[in-house]
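Severity: low
Component: inverse-folding endpoint
Summary: output formatting inconsistent between runs
Steps to reproduce: submit the following structure tokens with default settings.
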């Protein structure tokens, strides 16, 4: 029972109509969804399902054991929509949009460390972090200045699909050691920040992002941590 992943084509969709394929306390399966599925360091989306005579709070969205199928995890004790019902799936948009801004910021963090691999990441609505294979990182003020300059440049953020063979021929596109792009489906989604043949950043990524860096708003790197030999953790928050 595969789920059509609408967020991959348009991260700005806030709701959609969908048919319920299965429903249990573990999760509601829809034939299509705007909810991002937890993975790659980005949390799954939350929101609500509405149908005539009922509604259900969704606390998270995770992968099912079935290939290409999402589970919309309901609140404990929630009334579940009957199988076959048409529902409206509505995102907690404020939370999702913060994740989009944060995720794009982490791409910019990669861009200011050319040739340095990221060893781990975690995206949050309030604070995010990226770990680098780096012995002596610049101070947090340096990071803040570099990131806000790229944000102020209002660079376009675009996506396209490449083949597995293209990725294999260009291994430098992979900038993370902890999260490898999924292979085997024949194509991989590539996210690019900036224009032309030498963009600011370009790497495989399945997450959601803003359309232009200016949408992120000001950010601040608040803390650097030593997490072991040549593993430095950089924390960033969104300005209010």
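Observed output (run 2 of 3):
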């Amino acid at each position: 029972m595969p789920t059509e992943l609408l967020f991959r084509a348009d991260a700005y969709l806030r709701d959609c109509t969908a048919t319920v394929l299965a429903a249990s306390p573990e999760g509601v399966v829809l034939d299509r969804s705007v909810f991002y599925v937890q993975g790659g360091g980005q949390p799954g989306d939350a929101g609500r399902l509405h149908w005539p005579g009922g509604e259900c709070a969704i606390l998270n969205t995770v992968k099912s054991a079935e290939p290409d199928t999402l589970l919309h995890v309901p609140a404990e004790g929630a009334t579940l929509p009957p199988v076959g019902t048409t529902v409206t799936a509505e995102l907690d948009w404020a939370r999702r949009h913060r994740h989009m801004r944060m995720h794009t910021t982490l791409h910019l963090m990669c861009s200011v460390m050319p040739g340095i691999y990221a060893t781990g990441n975690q995206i949050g609505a309030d604070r995010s972090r990226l770990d680098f294979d780096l012995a002596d990182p610049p101070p947090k003020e340096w990071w803040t200045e570099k990131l806000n300059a790229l944000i102020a440049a209002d660079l376009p953020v675009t996506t396209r699909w490449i083949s597995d063979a293209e990725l294999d021929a260009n291994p430098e596109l992979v900038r993370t050691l902890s999260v490898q792009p999924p292979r085997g489906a024949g194509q991989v989604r590539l996210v690019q920040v900036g224009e032309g043949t030498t963009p600011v950043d370009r790497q495989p990524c399945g997450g959601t992002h803003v359309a232009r860096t200016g949408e992120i708003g000001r950010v601040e790197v608040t803390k650097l941590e030593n997490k072991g030999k040549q593993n430095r953790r950089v924390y960033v928050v969104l300005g209010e």
